[in-house]
Structure formats: C-alpha cells, structure tokens
Design brief:
Elements lengths: L32 H4 L6 H11 L9 H7 L4 H13 L3 E7 L5 E7 L69 H12 L1 H4 L7 H16 L4 H9 L9 H11 L20 E3 L6 E3 L7 H10 L1
Antiparallel strand pairs: 1-2, 3-4
Length: about 300
C-alpha cells in the first residue's frame, strides 16, 4: 500500500506583504500588472491611470477637475498625464466643434497603445468595407467627380466643457524681502494651529509664500492676513491649497494711499518800528502801528 502524501501547510512569510484577498462581485475594475508594476511610471501616474480606467465613458478628467478632486497639485497631475501619454496609456487631442467651441477628446487604454497595436483605435468601430473601383468612362465622357470618403467616427467626448479660462497668477512682491518671506512661511505653516483642515504640504507653502509677502508689502498685518485665510471655510474642504491661492489672489488689498505732504507753516511778517511812536509791530513794510494809524485817521 502506498504511503499517503500530506501537503505541507502554507507558511506565512517572515517579512514582506501578506495578501488577504476577497473576491469582488460589484463595483470593481480590472487593471493589468503591466500598469501597477510599471518600472518607469511614477506612483502618481499609476494611480491616476487606475482612476481613469475606473471611470465611465464621458466622465470629465480635466486637470482642474482632478486637482479639485485629489490633493495633488495641478502641476503634478499634468506631469502624470504626460507620463501616461508617453507610455501609450492615454491619448488626448483638441478639436474645434462646428459651434466654435474647443474640446479635449481623451482615450484611455487598458493596454499600452503603440503604432503597431490594434489598441490605437476603439475596437467597437467597424472596419470600412473595401470600395470596388468604378469602370473607366469612355474618352468622350467627362470623368465623374471622385467620391468623398466618409468622415471617420469621432471619439467619445471626455470633456464637454469649453476650454477653461486660465486662472489669474498669484500676487508677487515688488521688492524681495527676506524677513517678510520668513514671516510668510511661518504664517502659512502655522495655519493648522488655528484651523486643522489647513494642513499644507511643504511645496504648497513655498508656492503661496510670495503671495503672502505681497500682502505684507501692502502693510497688511499678519493677524489680518491669517483671519482672512481661515474665515468661513467651505465644508467639505477638499483642496485647501487651492482655496488659499484663490483668496490670496482675489482678496489682495490695495496699497495704502500716500500720506499728504503738509505744507510749510507761513512765515510771520517782519518786525517794523513805528515812525511815530517807535513801537515795534509786524507789517510787510515800514510805517505806522495800528494805534498811530487810528490817531492819524481821527486827526484827518
């Protein structure tokens, strides 16, 4: 009789990750390991690609919309989108509609798209049937006009909104001032002491500091700047750095008016000696004092 074989129990690794997998039955997206374990994409780009692949067709994925949805800045999201385009996971084109509005058409690929790969075009579009060449007409008959090829089907419009208006740039100080810059850094970094939701990243603090310096340069007291930034925060607050940038730009106070220059006090008239009584009095020219002038008028 053969000896029964006993399977060795599965051993838990002494280090590294341990997976506890539960099968998904709804609301899940299949993402390939070629994306999640990509050796050249950043983690921001990998996460953004997985998010885009989970969205339904026609969902907006503009840079400003994603920056309001996630804590990453617009610069990081734009860089991640460029990474996905460079590696074939995303394709964006700008087209002008008959109405004149410019829209961005975005195509997301769950497999990296290449020039030789069939994934460069949506698979749901049927291939056009070959057109048989028409017989050549007689020499006496004029040649018919060539047939116009049908317009290629348009890709799904991922952004139905018009081209976003660029945001106004942050205020900048007129004169570099190291002391004001340090005060601005301390003011922004310390906002979380007054409002825990205003916890800023170090990059955001450095980006917003020149705008705070512009406020201080216009003689705004640091306490007044702080109260303006923490007052009436929306609920929920999803992008604190964007809110602060908006307030620092749109609520920038005007410079204080220049104080009026006070004119010089009028100089008193010089002293004169009266021709009659030799009394001193002030007058622009020599002559008689007030009393002597009165006596002369009565005598006349």
């Amino acid at each position: 009789m053969d000896t029964p074989q006993i399977s060795a129990p599965t051993r838990t690794p002494s280090s590294g990750v341990v997976h506890i997998n539960t099968p998904h039955t709804s609301r899940f997206t299949v993402v390939g390991n070629h994306l999640t374990q990509h050796g050249e994409l950043s983690l921001t780009a990998i996460g953004l690609a997985a998010h885009i692949q989970s969205l339904p067709d026609g969902f907006r994925i503009g840079i400003r919309f994603l920056a309001d949805r996630f804590p990453e800045s617009e610069a990081r999201i734009a860089a991640a989108l460029r990474e996905l385009e460079a590696h074939g996971y995303l394709k964006r084109t700008r087209e002008r509609l008959p109405s004149g509005r410019v829209v961005t058409r975005t195509v997301s690929y769950n497999q990296p798209a290449t020039d030789a790969s069939p994934a460069t075009a949506p698979q749901s579009q049927p291939q056009p049937r070959p057109v048989r060449p028409a017989p050549e007409p007689p020499a006496s008959a004029p040649a018919p006009a060539p047939e116009t090829a049908p317009a290629p089907p348009s890709l799904p419009d991922s952004e139905n909104a018009p081209t976003p208006v660029p945001r106004p740039s942050l205020p900048q100080p007129q004169v570099p001032d190291l002391d004001r810059h340090r005060a601005a850094i301390d003011l922004l970094a310390g906002l979380r002491r007054h409002e825990p939701r205003l916890l800023l990243a170090e990059d955001d603090v450095r980006r917003l500091a020149p705008a705070v310096v512009a406020w201080l340069e216009r003689d705004a007291h640091p306490d007044a700047v702080r109260r303006t930034l923490v007052a009436d925060l929306p609920k929920p607050l999803t992008h604190p750095a964007g809110l602060l940038a908006h307030r620092l730009t749109t609520l920038l106070p005007p410079p204080l008016p220049t104080a009026p220059v006070r004119g010089a006090a009028p100089r008193p008239e010089p002293l004169q000696n009266c021709d009659s009584c030799d009394r001193a009095f002030r007058a622009p020219e020599p002559g008689h004092c007030r009393d002597c002038r009165s006596d002369l008028m009565e005598a006349a």
